[in-house]
Specification:
Number of domains: 1
Number of strands: 7
CATH topology: Rossmann fold
Oligomer: single chain
Keywords: Methyltransferase, S-adenosyl-L-methionine, Transferase
Largest sheet: 7 strands, mixed
Order of helices and strands: HHHHHEHEHEHEHEHHHEHHE
Shape: globular
Radius of gyration: 18 Å
Protein name: S-adenosyl-L-methionine-dependent methyltransferase
Strand content: 5-15%
InterPro entries: Ppm1/Ppm2/Tcmp, SAM-dependent_MTases_sf, SAM_mthyl_Trfase_ML2640-like
CATH architecture: 3-Layer(aba) Sandwich
Number of helices: 14
Family: Belongs to the UPF0677 family.
CATH superfamily: Vaccinia Virus protein VP39
Structural class: alpha/beta
Function: Exhibits S-adenosyl-L-methionine-dependent methyltransferase activity.
Helix content: 40-55%
Bound molecules: S-adenosylmethionine
Amino acid sequence: MDRTSRSPGDSWDLASSVGATATMVAGQRVLAHREGLIDDPFAEPLVRAVGVDFVNRILDGEVAFEDVDPSFTVRLAAESMAVRTRFFDQLFLDAAAAGVRQAVILAAGLDARSYRLPWPQGTVVYEVDQPEVIAFKTRTLAGLGAAPRVTHRVVAVDLREDWPKALRDNGFDPSQPTAWIAEGLLIYLPSDAQDKLFDAITTLSAPGSRLATERVHDVATFVGGRPREITDKMRELGSTIDMEQLVFTGERTNVVDHLGGLGWTVTEIDARAAHADNGFEFPDNELTASFGDLSYVSAVLG
Ligand SMILES: C[S@@+](CC[C@H](N)C(=O)[O-])C[C@H]1O[C@@H](n2cnc3c(N)ncnc32)[C@H](O)[C@@H]1O
């Protein structure tokens, strides 16, 4: 049963509701950057600019992961985010090597790939997210003197609405192959919006397009039991995020099957194998059993 407090048309900034989760994962990217596992110098200034106290206190070492759960450490948080960041970076690097020159970052949040990846000349990157999220990031990075390393177009629209029209209105060309990522997004979409998202992506994708996303095997693992205890502990320590209220736990289509049915050639790798591929040991404990039950999905349209 969904316990979500979400409603059709709800909106947020980077400090509230679903937006705060973007700040939280960017905070994890700061840790991965500090550990030398990824190169994202923009994560920390962005997170600091948002100013979510709990996240800042993690970065300042005032809240220890071990206070939340004894089995959790900065290093583990950094490694799991490095696995994720490298996976989505690779989709764009592979697409670029294959000659794809159009990219879309769906639900971009505080993603700084437009500012940090080595995009080939002539590439256009579209970033899609809610208006306040996209405006804040673009304004903050401009204020820091950071310039995108690519032709960069922001599309402020809700992904439950007619985002394909907004994308086209901003110059997107469906006759060109496109590299798409939807990172950390699906659990925040109702199941019908997830289905429509991939149907629309497919309609907009010329042959040779590529796509990466994740599959959370059961969104209900975010609800009740140990995850509930973790959320409560984090809230005691000052967090304002309550995952139970933000995700949609009802039945949803398996994205791998869905994409396969739409003609994509799909590859799936589970988090454990993805950790191993990066030389990291997948932590075997109750916490990761709850939160780590996901796989990374990439696809190519023939
Ligand atoms: C966990 S964050 C991930 C952000 C980014 N992809 C990353 O991995 O750092 C979830 C993001 O999804 C965006 N999002 C969720 N539902 C959305 C919707 N219906 N329309 C637009 N953006 C949405 C949020 O604004 C937020 O930036």
